[in-house]
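Assess this one:

_____
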Amino acid sequence: MRRRAQYINNTCQQLDWTKHVINGRTPVYFYSQHASLLVCKAPKTGSTLLGAVVRAINLFNENNVSTIFQLGRNDIHKGLDEVRDQLITEEIIRTRSHVMVTRDPYSRLFSTFIDKYFLLGRLGRELALYVKRGFKESKGTYCGYDYTFQDFLDYIVYLAKTNLEVNEHMVPISQLCDVCRERYDLIGSQEHLNEATEEILKLVSNVTNTRLDMIRKSIKSKQSSLLSLVSSHIFDYNNNRPDCPDKNAFSAKMWKTFQIQGIVHAELDFPTHVFSPFSFHEEEARNMTSAILQEIRRKPLSQQEHKKQRLKYLSQAYRGIRWQTIVKIQHIYKLDILLFGYSMFPPSYPHSNDT
């Protein structure tokens, strides 16, 4: 990870990287003064986990460390442990460890589509207005909007081409982290997030081994990570109910999302009975998580199956995308592809006849 940082620093000096800048937000960092740690915040690279790590490091009472990793992303991203580049002082610049995490652009875009468009939220309404589509109807009800992954990718191309502001979830990571101006000590990848997080923990100073061990244990807890996701989905649903008045339809979307993320086995049908007792109140998150975990244990995924299932959904998503769109996406994310060593082309699932 340190060699990658050195390679990127050297490569940036040989590029006219300013030609690839689009209209998007300036860098934001998770910051721990106590641990002398500055972590670039790039959505869809494990930023919620990284934010939780920094929050746990900064927490006054280390007995509460484990609770941080059970919080929904809306609580983690409130800005309590963040600093924007416009407000960075000389003291912050002298922070001992500057780190960031990358992700394959194609995987990141699909993850953004599932999390912010397939599910509910403001971004989905914006895309629906752009493509002039209404709600997605099914079986006498509706939930979310009637657009496709192709529509989403074309929308990004349109925003970049017309110099309109691109949401932070789609801005290239190289730009979000200002990688050609900022010198990073360590650059990890979302594809190996556990290893990256461990390397970050090895860099921190002035943190007790007890606290670090609690952080490591919390990161490995499947219940905590799922609880954080469920809490986030409940929050988003309650803030966007007019877009999906049928909670059963939204529950089905959640289940499909868990399958795409490799949390739930693809062969486990949507269990209506698991979600029907709940009204999607925030205080129900823990019980809902327990009910989901119980269903998951009926057919758990091995680590290899987890990776294979994620890759299958990802490659299927890109299989029908027009090649003209892929070429334009390649141009927008050229620096991410070049600097971080990712393929110019979307991942291809090895068994093309699978459905």
